[in-house]
Write a structure and sequence with these properties.
It is globular and about 100 Å long. It is built from three helices and 48 strands. Strand 44 and strand 45 form a beta hairpin. The chain starts with a helix and ends in a 22-residue tail after the last strand. By secondary structure, the chain is mainly beta. It has a 31-stranded mixed beta sheet that branches.
Length: about 800
C-alpha cells in the first residue's frame, strides 16, 4: 500500500513542477476564441467535441482542441486575422462559424454553440443521428435511457442492466464489477432509500441520464466499494409550460404511469412529477439444503412457486429562484411510499441418515417490506463575478419508515402445524449539510475545498412470534425480541486542485473523514461504539494524443461501512429454516481502485477501452453455516481480501445508415482469499459480460431494438453463481411526431433468464435454482405536450443559435 502512495506522490510532484511551463508557454498567445458546445434539442453539454480553427483565405489549419467535461473550450490564436471554426462531433452536423480577430478585439466569446443530430436521406428511409446509449467521459460513464427502447416501461435497474461493469440478477439486485456496495445519488443528493430500493423505485421514463462514477474524486463521499450511481431526473430547460405523460401495462400484474410538468421564465424554474409503478415477477424454484451435524447428514429438499414484486408511488417537485445574475436559491422535496412483496408456496421433503424415511409437508411464506419516506432540501449558489468562482451550500433532511413483516405457515393434511412471524419496525432519519467552494486561477486550473457532514439516527424493534396449535395463533417470544438503536455521525473536509501542462490535465485531492458510531441493544444490555479518522486521496489525469484520441488514468481510495441488519447482535428468525445474525464487530472495507482508459475514433466507430485493478481489504461477505438440523444461519464476516483485474470495451458504429450497433464488454479475473471459521480459503474465477445493443431505424417513425446480455459464472467466499443469458426485443412507433408514441417490449424473448447458485461450508451444502416466467410483454404509451424546441435561424453575433418552434 505504501508503495502505491509513493508512486502517486511522484506523479503528482512531476505534474505540479511542469505546470508553470504551461503558463510561460501561454504568455506569447495573441488572442483567443471560446464558447460552449451543447446538444441542439436537449441542451446537454457535449464533451470531447472537436474544434478546428482555419484561416479564411487558404483554409489552412491554425489550431484545434476539444471541449472539456462542461462543454467549454478556449483556443489560443497566434495573430490577428479572419478565421472560421468547424465544430464537429460524431452523430451531429458540423457547425461552421466565421470570426475576426482585431487589435481592438483579441478575445472572441461565441457563447453557446448548438449542434444538431445529423440526418441522412436514403430513398424513403430517413435516419437521424442519436446519442449512444452509453458514453464515456473523463471520470464517468453516462447512460442515456431515452436511447434504450427495452427499458421504457422499467426502472433504473433495467437501464443499468444494459451497461458494462454492471450485473443485474434475476431478483433485480445490482452489482458493479462484482460488488453490491455502491452509493446512489439523485440529482447529486443522497437517496432517501437504500441503494437497491432506490434503483427499483425510480421509473426509467423519468430519468434524464445516469452517471456511473467508478473512481470518484475526493470531492465525493467515498462510501461504496464500487463507486457512485448518480441519477439525473428530467427537468425540461425550455421556457414556458411543457411536460410528458407515460403509461404502461404488461403481463404478470405489471403496469404503471408517470407524468412530469415543467414551467420556466426568466426568474423562476419549477417542476413537479408523480409516478406509480407495480411490477411482479412470478417463477418456480427448487432448493436443497444439506447439513452435517452430530455425525448425521440431514437433507431438506424444497420445490415451489414464488412471486416477487414491488409497488411504489412518489411525488417530487422543486423551485429555483434566480435572485440576480450572481445568486440563486432553490428548494426541493420528494415523498412517497414503496412496498416490496414476496409470496411463495412450497413442498418440503426431509430425511436424514439416521432416519431415512421421508417427511413431507407444505408451507407458504408472505413477506412484505413497506413504509413512507420523504426528503426536503435547500440549495444556495453565489457567484463572485468571475467565471467559475462560486460558493455552493446545501441542507438536506430525510425520513423513512420501513416496516418488514414475514409470516411463514406449515401445513400437514390441510391443518396448520407450525409457523413463525417476524416483524421489524422503526424509523430512520438523516441530516446532511455541505459547503463547496471553487476558485479558478486560470482557464485550466482551479482550487476546490469543502465540508460535508451528516447524522444518521435509526431505531428498530424486532419481534418474533411462533405459531402454537393449542392457541391456534402466533404467540410473542420475548427472548427473541429486541430493540436496536443505531446512531452515526460523520464530518469530512476535502481539498482539490486541477491543472494542466500542455496536453496533460491532472486533478489531485485529499479528503479526511471522522466517524463516530454507536449501537445499543437495551434488551440485552449491550453497547458497541466506533471512533475513527480516515483519509481518502484521489488522483485523475488525462493526456490528449490527437484531436480525437486521449488516455486517462485515475486512483481513489474508498470505504464501505456496514450498516442495517449486518450489525444487529442478535438472532432474527426469517422462517422455520433460516436465521440471520448481525456482527457488530465488523470492520469497514477499504478499497484501492486504479483505472486507465483510452478514447479514440476508428474510422466511423467510436471506441473506448478501460483497464482497472481493485483491491478490497477487510472484505465483507454474507456467509452461512448450519445452526441446527435443517436450520441455516446467515451472518456477515470480514473474510479477507479480494482482487479484481480486468478491462472494459465499448464500440459504437453504424454498419449501414439505418443500423446502429453498440457493443459493450467487461472481463475480469477475480480472486478472494482469507480465513473463514478458522480455515483458509482461496477462490478464483474469470468473469465476463457482453452487451450487444442493436437499433434499427427503418422509417422516420419506426424503430426496432434487439439487445442481448450475457453474464458469466462467478465465485464468492463460499460458493458459485451460474451464468445467464437474456434477450429483449422492442418496437417503437411514433403516432404523432414529437407528441404521441407507443412502444412494445418483449422481455426475455427466448425464456433463458434464470438464477442458480451453490454454497458450501464445513457443515452444510446448499443449492438453489430459480426459473423466471417469461417472455413478458409490456405496452408503453408516451404523450408529450408543448415540447418547445428551438428553430435554427442561423448564427447570431455571439455564435449561438436562436429562434423557437411550438409543436
Amino acid at each position: 500500500m505504501k508503495n502505491y502512495y509513493n508512486v502517486i506522490f511522484v506523479l503528482l510532484l512531476c505534474s505540479i513542477i511542469s505546470f508553470p511551463q504551461q503558463n510561460q508557454r501561454g504568455e506569447d498567445v495573441g488572442g483567443s476564441v471560446s464558447g460552449k458546445v451543447l446538444d441542439f434539442s436537449t441542451k446537454h453539454v457535449i464533451e470531447y467535441a472537436n474544434l478546428l480553427v482555419m484561416t479564411e483565405g487558404d483554409s489552412s489549419m491554425v489550431t484545434g482542441g476539444v471541449t472539456d467535461s462542461k462543454g467549454n473550450f478556449n483556443l489560443r490564436i497566434p495573430k490577428i486575422g479572419n478565421y472560421y471554426i468547424e465544430v464537429k462531433f460524431i452523430g451531429y452536423k458540423t457547425e461552421r462559424i466565421t470570426i475576426s480577430l482585431t487589435p481592438e478585439k483579441l478575445n472572441v466569446d461565441l457563447g453557446e454553440i448548438l449542434l444538431s443530430p445529423s440526418s441522412i436521406l436514403l430513398e424513403n428511409v430517413v435516419v437521424e443521428g442519436q446519442r449512444a446509449p452509453v458514453t464515456y467521459e473523463i471520470d464517468k460513464k453516462v447512460i442515456n435511457p431515452d436511447q434504450m427502447l427495452n427499458v421504457v416501461s422499467g426502472n433504473a435497474v433495467d437501464v443499468l442492466s444494459n451497461v458494462p461493469s454492471v450485473h443485474v440478477d434475476i431478483e433485480g439486485n445490482v452489482s458493479i464489477r462484482g460488488s453490491q456496495s455502491f452509493n446512489v445519488l439523485i440529482d447529486g443528493r443522497p437517496s432517501v432509500l437504500d441503494a437497491q430500493d432506490a434503483l427499483q423505485q425510480i421509473q426509467a421514463s423519468s430519468i434524464e441520464r445516469i452517471e456511473l462514477i467508478t473512481n470518484p474524486s475526493a470531492k465525493y463521499d467515498p462510501e461504496g466499494t464500487a463507486g457512485i450511481i448518480n441519477i439525473i431526473l428530467k427537468k425540461n430547460s425550455n421556457s414556458g409550460l411543457n411536460g410528458i405523460v407515460n403509461a404502461n401495462a404488461g403481463m404478470h400484474d405489471t403496469y404503471g404511469a408517470d407524468f412530469l410538468i415543467n414551467y420556466q421564465n426568466d426568474n423562476i424554474k419549477t417542476n413537479f412529477s408523480l409516478d406509480y409503478s407495480r411490477r411482479f415477477y412470478p417463477g418456480d424454484f427448487t432448493q436443497s439444503n444439506i447439513s452435517y451435524l452430530d455425525n448425521n447428514v440431514s437433507t431438506t429438499n424444497t420445490v415451489g412457486s414464488v412471486t416477487r414484486g414491488r409497488i411504489g408511488y412518489e411525488g417530487r417537485g422543486g423551485i429555483e429562484f434566480l435572485l440576480d445574475e450572481n445568486n440563486s436559491l432553490s428548494f426541493g422535496a420528494r415523498a412517497g411510499r414503496r412496498e416490496g412483496q414476496q409470496k411463495s408456496n412450497q413442498l418440503f421433503t426431509q430425511f436424514s441418515e439416521q432416519d431415512p424415511s421421508e417427511i413431507s409437508y407444505t408451507g407458504n411464506t408472505d413477506r412484505s417490506r413497506a413504509g413512507p419516506y420523504y426528503s426536503i432540501n435547500s440549495n444556495y449558489s453565489h457567484n463572485f463575478g468571475s467565471d467559475g468562482h462560486q460558493l455552493l451550500g446545501e441542507l438536506y433532511y430525510s425520513y423513512r419508515n420501513s416496516d418488514e413483516i414475514t409470516i411463514t405457515s406449515e401445513f400437514d393434511a390441510g391443518y396448520q402445524i407450525g409457523g413463525k412471524k417476524t416483524t421489524e419496525i422503526g424509523p430512520s432519519t438523516d441530516f446532511r449539510g455541505k459547503l463547496d467552494y471553487t476558485l479558478p486561477f486560470s482557464e485550466s486550473s482551479k482550487f476546490e475545498a469543502g465540508y460535508q457532514g451528516q447524522v444518521d439516527l435509526d431505531e428498530e424493534t424486532n419481534e418474533l412470534y411462533e405459531y402454537t396449535t393449542t392457541m391456534g395463533d402466533y404467540q410473542l417470544l420475548p427472548e427473541f425480541s429486541n430493540l436496536n438503536k443505531y446512531n452515526r455521525s460523520e464530518h469530512a473536509l476535502y481539498t482539490m486542485y486541477s491543472g494542466s501542462a500542455w496536453e496533460l490535465k491532472y486533478q489531485v485531492g485529499l479528503r479526511g473523514e471522522y466517524t463516530y458510531r454507536t449501537i445499543e441493544v437495551p434488551t440485552q444490555n449491550e453497547y458497541f461504539d466506533l471512533d475513527r479518522f480516515d483519509y481518502f486521496p484521489s488522483f485523475h489525469t488525462s493526456y490528449k494524443f490527437t484531436q480525437s484520441s486521449s488516455v486517462m488514468a485515475s486512483y481513489s481510495r474508498k470505504i464501505d461501512r456496514p450498516g442495517g441488519w449486518a450489525l444487529e447482535p442478535f438472532d432474527t428468525w426469517i422462517d422455520a429454516n433460516n436465521v440471520r445474525r448481525g456482527n457488530p464487530n465488523l470492520q469497514p472495507e477499504f478499497i484501492d481502485s486504479y483505472e486507465t482508459g483510452v478514447q479514440t475514433q476508428l474510422g466511423i466507430a467510436n471506441f473506448s477501452t478501460e483497464i482497472y485493478y481493485r483491491i478490497t481489504h477487510n472484505k465483507i461477505e454474507r456467509v452461512q453455516t448450519a445452526l441446527d438440523e435443517n436450520v441455516v444461519l446467515t451472518t456477515r464476516e470480514n473474510v479477507g481480501t479480494d482482487y479484481s483485474l480486468g478491462g472494459e470495451v465499448m464500440l459504437n458504429f453504424d454498419p449501414v445508415q439505418f443500423w446502429n450497433v453498440n457493443l459493450m464488454g467487461n472481463a475480469y479475473h477475480y480472486l478472494v482469499e482469507g480465513v473463514l471459521y478458522d480455515e483458509s480459503f482461496s477462490n478464483t474465477s474469470f468473469n465476463w459480460q457482453v452487451r450487444f445493443y442493436n437499433n434499427f431505424k427503418l422509417w422516420s417513425s419506426t424503430q426496432i431494438q434487439f439487445n442481448l446480455n450475457y453474464n458469466s459464472p462467478t465465485v464468492s467466499a463460499q460458493g458459485t453463481r451460474a451464468g445467464n443469458l437474456r434477450t429483449d426485443l422492442s418496437i417503437r412507433q411514433d403516432i404523432i411526431e414529437n407528441i404521441l408514441s407507443t412502444t412494445v417490449q418483449v422481455i426475455d424473448l427466448f425464456g433463458t433468464t434464470n438464477r442458480e447458485f451453490t454454497s458450501e461450508g464445513a457443515n452444510f451444502n446448499n443449492s438453489y435454482y430459480y426459473d423466471f416466467n417469461s417472455p413478458r410483454v409490456v405496452l408503453n404509451l408516451r404523450y408529450t405536450f408543448n415540447n418547445y424546441k428551438p428553430k435554427k435561424e442561423g448564427v447570431d453575433s455571439g455564435g449561438g443559435l436562436g429562434g423557437g418552434e411550438d409543436f
